[in-house]
Every structure is written in structure tokens, then in C-alpha cells.
Amino acid sequence: MKIKRIYRYCIIPILLLLSACYSKFISAENLQWDQEDPILFRDDFSSPKSGWVTNEESRSYSGYALEGFQFRSEIPNFQFWSVPGLNFKDVHIYTKARKIGGPDDNLFGLICRYQDPLNFYAFIIGSDGYYGIFKVLEGHQALINQVHLDFSEMINQGNSENEIHVLCEGENLVLIVNDSQLLFVQDASLAYGDVGLIAGNFSEPGVNVLFDNFIVMKP
């Protein structure tokens, strides 16, 4: 079985740039929504003014495109992400994503409790069927209760679309893909923060992933 490992240290330059575009979180309580509504935030990426951090360089791009939010990069062993600048504690997050180019040996998924580029949780899958949950704490990245990324036939491989749900509630962290729970772990390192999208390459560059219909709900 193919073994894949998450790199323990972030590649910082682009990540610091992505996080520098807003200076503080917007409190969920201050946003103009119905507090009884289970949906806290939603975006179909139809408007480039909906608040997501974007970036464009010669070898990487993250931004509104193709009626969704696109990540592409030609940098090997590289992860990058975008967040809308919100602040939550316990959430259920949903998105749809598919590979539109590049190798199947990639990673993409969702983020919760993002406090800064050095502290957050990430829930990832790959177009080759591998998955995992990792945390970045004070800049050190490691899988939670996994020796390596695991494989599931429930993940649609290649260019097929996947529905990704995650639950961040208390110390409970759950990854659900295509209505199948793949992983449940517990970690109490981070209690609140932003939500977001993440993508990346392993040794082979060329990740090109498109996200759509990002929804944050009360758990």
C-alpha cells in the first residue's frame, strides 16, 4: 500500500501573504444573520467581494474562478489556503470539490479553528483516495491519531467530485466524505477560529482543484 506522509513544517512565504490581508476576526455574533438559523455562513463564490483571501503569483493561484474558488500550484511539497475572516467555536462545514488538473497525488479539503498561519486544523482528502486530519500548532504540523494518510474507496478518485463535511465540536473532529464518516479524532489544542479551504502538492506539483458551495452550520 502506498504510504504518504504530511510534511511537519509549513512552507510559510505564501501563507503569510494570504493571512496578511485582514488584521482581525469578525465575531460571529456581529454578523447580520438570524441567530436561530442553523446556517451561519454560506458562499457559492459567485461574487468576488464575499471576503475570501486571494493570491496570484507566477507559480500559484488561489481565487474566484470558474464559478467556484480555485487553487492551483506548480510548487512541490506545498500547501496553501484561504479563509473568509470569520470566527467560530463549534461548526459543521460543507463543501464540494473536484480536481480539474494535475496529479491525483494531491490534497484538498477544509479548515476549522484557524487562528493564524501557525495554528489551525485541516481535514484533507486526495484525488487518489487518501485522507487525514492534521493540526498545525505553533508552526508544527502533524496528523492526529494517524501514522500516515489512510485510504478509502468512499473517496471518488481522479477528476470526480467529492462532498466533504467536517465537524468541529468541542474536542471532537470528524471527517465525512460522500456521506461516509472516514475519521473521528479528539484534540483540545484549539477552541475557536476561522474556517477555510486548503489545497496542496506532494512531490509532484500541479495541483488544480475547484471548490463550490461552502456552507457553515451550527452543529
Can you walk me through this structure?
With 219 residues, this protein is mostly beta strands. It has one domain: Sandwich (Jelly Rolls). The protein is 4% helix and 50% strand. It is built from one helix and 18 strands. Strands 2, 3, 4, 5, 8, 14, 15, 16 and 18 form a nine-stranded antiparallel sheet that branches. It is globular, with a radius of gyration of 16 Å.
Notable characteristics:
disordered N terminus, 4% helix, mainly beta, 219 residues, 9-stranded antiparallel sheet, 7-stranded antiparallel sheet, Jelly Rolls, single chain, 1 helix
Low-confidence spans: 1-34
Major β-sheet, in short? 9 strands, antiparallel
Number of strands: 18
Q: Number of domains in the coordinates? A: 1
Average pLDDT works out at: 86
CATH fold name? Jelly Rolls
Continuous helix count: 1
Question: First CA to last CA: what distance?
Answer: 35 Å
The helix content, as a percent range, equals: under 10%
Would you identify the CATH architecture?
Sandwich
**Broad shape:** globular
What does this entry show, briefly?
With 219 residues, the protein is mainly beta. The chain is built from one helix and 18 strands.
